[in-house]
# Entry
Amino acid sequence: MALVSSRIFTSRPFRFLIGEQEQPFTIHSTLVAQHSKPLSVLVNGPMSEAQEGSTVLKHVDEETFGRFCEWAYTGDYHPFEKEARVKQEGKVDEASEMDRGEIDVVFENDGWDLPLRLGKKGNKKGRVETPYDHSLSPPPESITTRVWKAFYNRSFGITAPVPALSDTIQDADGKPTDDLLTHARIYIFAEMYDIPLLRKRALSKLHQTLIHLQPYHENDDQIAQIVRLIEYTYNNTTSGSREPDDDLRSLVIHYAACVVETLEPDGRFRELLEAEGSMARELLGFLCGRLG
# Structure
């Protein structure tokens, strides 16, 4: 996104009262108009809100609007305020290779049904040996590997910085975050107010976060985050006749197909699958290779 023009700072400030508590946010009107046609009408049109320089958006939560303001001025947003991880002796803990984003995706396809793994670049440690005889014809690519590859290669026409692994699943105190829902809510906000660049940014950030997030059965917090993401997505998007016609829905159900073996035993996921007929159809579509 281009740098903010100096003329923006000379434009009239506009006050948004956000959420049930009507938390005030002030943003320059020209900047709002630059990014969103619907909001441009609101801040510059003939309606009373434009004349008063203020409007109320009760249906938008404070965090989402705050991230929109951050993105509007800087070209990016962050899910939560990050704090330096400090050792007891007062030194900042050095980030691991994975925390610095130096991470690669390893598709374990030496056997018949080996899942995707995350590993450090140039490090073959942890690869699973397979008894398959490679003198024979190559083994078929597993559904898991094929679906993961397609998910990993998704593109949104924008590049989002690779998030640190620890930042995608927990906050500075080690507690699980709602990072996934943060990106989804920003996408829905951008969709509602026709902000294409923010919509792409949210999709790209969610995509990168999901690539790093590989849940396992014992981690109930991660599974709960994923189920909440799926539920929120299906409550706020629509389905096409045969496949998802919404980019967020397509991304989320594609990820669900990647980790369906982990999600399937979860009762919350099963209930959601039974309640959302289109979800079952779209999930099956990805698993069968018709979509994505």
